[in-house]
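Re: Re: ligand-bound prediction request (bumping)

Still looking for help on this. To restate: I need the protein modeled with phosphoenolpyruvate bound, output as structure tokens. Inputs repeated here so nobody has to scroll up.
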Amino acid sequence: MSTATQIAVDLATVSPVAGTKPPAYPLASRQSRAGASTVQVGSIEFGGPEVVVMAGPCTVESRRQLLEAAQGVCSLGAVVLRGGAFKPRTSPYDFRGLAEEGLRHLAEARTLTGLLVITEVMSEKDVELVANYADILQIGSRSMSAFRLLEEVARTGKPVMLKRGFMATVKEWLLAAEYILAQGNERVILCERGIRSFDSDFTRNTLDLNAVAVAKMETHLPVIVDPSHGTGRADLVAPLAKAAIAVGADGLLIEVHPDPSTALCDGKQSLDLPRFAALMSELRPFIAATGRRLAMPRG
Ligand code: PEP
Ligand code: MN
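Reply:
Sorry for the wait, this slipped through. Here it is.
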């Protein structure tokens, strides 16, 4: 059966709750699946009883910077290493990442630490290259509505973490997830990273925790929260990380840099390693209070 035929069959078998309209996103909807779905990546499971912490620098700047960050976050309990090799920057004159060299550093960090690797793919042209290195493909906020890119990443069969566009409604975000699911790739993880709002005096974005609770209720997909981009401030990462756990987030994406003052991108919102250590120990009781546990590295 072709993928398209399979999807048509799947859509036909989605049984809406009596008296309610079928949702616009039938494959993502809770109406299509009784329980929560989990996404398995190596030995780590997203959407299950464990809360997954992903951490690392905004951008891979050098081998040394990345390995220092990777070893640090690994020893403190992160299980996935983040780091951009292809960076979406507002200005074309800003540092836009090391491209394949950055991917090679991520792969080396994975070998040395055992961490899984998540990194962004911005262009359809780079999907194959990035998929050769990454364990999870990240779709950035600015690319959420790049529908051909969504289809291309879906076709790799790799897990995809879909960040919410900073100007996107929750429904648009869920429909973007539907683009990936409709290609037959069920390994979709949602990520709330803050939206643009009217008040930028104190925060870069407004972390929309409503959206996290709504996404958990409306869909069966795992939902991650990124309090680093969501606030734009290192001192707000810990309180919003705790709040994210309280509303049911399945994991966190945290920017950590060995020396945030020298970061080429997003230094203001990046934690140094001592601050990340403090966050991890503060998080444990919050996670336990929700009846969950922190995902642990497995050898
Ligand atoms: C990132 O996480 O590296 C990033 C660029 O974030 P966003 O797409 O949410 O701006
Ligand atoms: Mn960043």
